[in-house]
Amino acid sequence: MILVTGAAGFIGFHVAQRLLKDGHEVHGIDNLNAYYDPALKASRLQILKRCPGFTFLQINISDRASMESYFLSNRPQYVIHLAAQAGVRHSISNPHEYIDSNITGFLHVLEGCRHSKVSHLVYSSSSSVYGLNSSMPLSTEQSVDHPVSLYGATKKANELMAHSYSHLYRIPTTGLRFFTVYGPWGRPDMAYFSFTKAILEGKPIDVFNNGKMERDFTYIDDIVEGVVRIMVHPASPDSNWDPQATDPASSIAPYRLYNIGNHTAVPLLKFIEILEECLGSKAIKRLLPAQPGDVLTTTADVSELLRDFGFEPRTPIEIGIRQFAEWYRAYYKR
To answer: What is the rounded average pLDDT of the residues 163-181?
Structure first.
């Protein structure tokens, strides 16, 4: 049995759906908070509940007693941990939510995995850990000691916490640094989602740093493929690991880190142009200065993902945006 935390969330929903299609028994937990429209989460959950083999439990991962009870009663074989308080800008104004969910909640997941002796914990990290790094493409071999948002700092903390549990208790853990995930059933707080809503309503969109930003936009199906492939290959100790020349992405413990990104930097204005074409409407752009916590460019080095799993994301941005735009129009009847 596989536990997917954050199962009503964007990535969690797609991962759970894929696992169910592959014939797995899946338990999904989510607290169904109101960070963004709960109705969207409910719609995702309705789809999952129609699938044989799915069980849903409304649990807040920051609730220690509930998490201990879940793991004691169910003992999953694999855990895919995708529950988190997301959002770079939101972390600046609501820092306590990030500590409760991303730090305390992750500790409860680690403790559950420890006592249940799970075969593999796969958890979501983020490209936000790279912070002030400016050497592209961003590689797991680089230091990530200078995050520029609390959100990024909590994800770096998750990686460190996972390593300590891998080292102390030999729990295989793999952290996945996702790069700007987009696609159908996405998060309304993401720029491409809010851009779509505004464009279709004829309202202006806020384009920060005057549009002089690039992102490694990664289509959701590519993220899911990476998660599923990695799950069944538990991290193992690196026999070549050298404590005098440490590789941050591996260890003498059963611990690994991978980037999952489309390994292509797309200018934000180019992204908007493609979105306009897919929607058949022009955007009214309101050019604004950069916001606190923003980074200018992200591009993923996925060479290790390709080496170890024979996979790298390949969905072109033109195809991915069109798929999202078609879903958006159908779901919101626009």
So the answer is: 97
